[in-house]
Amino acid sequence: MSYIGICLRGLEEVAEKETKGKKIYSGRVSFLGKSLSKKLSKNNFKSLLTVYRLYKKFNFKDKEEILDEFKKLKIKVKKSFRVKCNREGNHEFKSVDIEKLIGIYLQKNGFKLDFKEPKTVIFIDIVEDFCLIGLLEKEDMQKREYRVKLNPETLNSTIAYSALILSEYKKNDVLVDPNCRDGIIVVEGSLMKKGKVYGFDMNTRNARINSKIAKVKVELGQNEIDWLDTKFKKNSVKIVSYLPSASKRNNESDVRRFYSEFFHQAKYIVKDKMCLIVKKTELIKEYFNDFKLIKEINTKIGDDDYSILVLKKSI
């Protein structure tokens, strides 16, 4: 059976690796499912937002064509149903229009509409002029139960997980996040059970609470960044971190001081690669002197843009 995983645009590479699938469209990865229910129950696909079983994919011109294609399918609806439409792009219709169109058709054929506890969820996935129809398996997969105490500038767990994969974080690596905020990166790293994990920040209260809820062991400390070279040996760690960018909350001079000290410390303690997440790349690229940028991935959540930068030590 063929399945489609929806991920954040730009992170298809991580989703392909995790599902052993292939990108078929922006933010969409196709893969074959074996023991899928078990994997979904354990949330083994941490790079995905939604998974649905695929029945048909096609290009369309208008909403009526989507209904016509749906009518041709032999989808088994178990007693009650609801229709969910995920739509990306500019169209002359809204998601709710598609949901109503197919919902009315199914009701006319004797099926019961149930918004609260439907037995079947018809999933209509529209990306520009491309439409995929299937049955929803799981949604909201980016949510984590441990994310209880969050900082104002928290990080989406899917981006944190993807950064860890892109950093090539592996068994026995020492993982360090010197700007751990509420602990999303260090918790995601600890859940991978690969090696020791350290997180530092001026205030680690939220990170401590979240790691405790996640039932993972993270070494947390409230230390200045210039203290790192006294804690870790030369060429000994993997850094993955969400760093500040100049904004209304963070003035440029403070950010520049942070970058200068951060890269000074990283030059000493980083073993090979590190992965950094920032909202703006202009300033940080001025400090890459001892590192080579080998990959830059851009993604977006709502109005927020994020850049994932994979750097390799060049000295």
Model description:
- It is a single chain.
- Helix content is 28%, strand content 31%.
- The protein is an alpha/beta fold.
- An eight-stranded mixed sheet has the order 2-3-1-4-8-7-5-6. Strands 11-10-9-12-13-15-14 form a seven-stranded mixed sheet, sandwiched between helices.
- It starts with a strand and ends with a strand.
- Strand 10, helix 7 and strand 11 form a beta-alpha-beta unit.
- Helix 3 packs parallel to helix 4 and helix 6 packs parallel to helix 7.
- The protein is elongated, with a radius of gyration of 22 Å.
- The longest helix is centred in the C-terminal third of the chain and has 18 residues.
- The protein is built from nine helices and 15 strands.
The chain-level structural class is alpha/beta
Tally of extended strands?
Answer: 15
Strand content: 25-35%
Instruction: Give the biggest beta sheet.
Output: 8 strands, mixed
How far apart lie the N and C ends?
A: 48 Å
Along the chain, the helix and strand elements come as EHEEHEHEHEEEHEHEHEHEHEEE
Give the overall average pLDDT: 95
> Reading side by side through the largest sheet, how are the strands ordered?
2-3-1-4-8-7-5-6
| Rg for CA atoms | 22 Å
Nutshell version of this structure?
With 315 residues, the protein is an alpha/beta fold.
Which features would summarize this protein structure in a list?
alpha/beta, eight-stranded mixed β-sheet, 9 helices
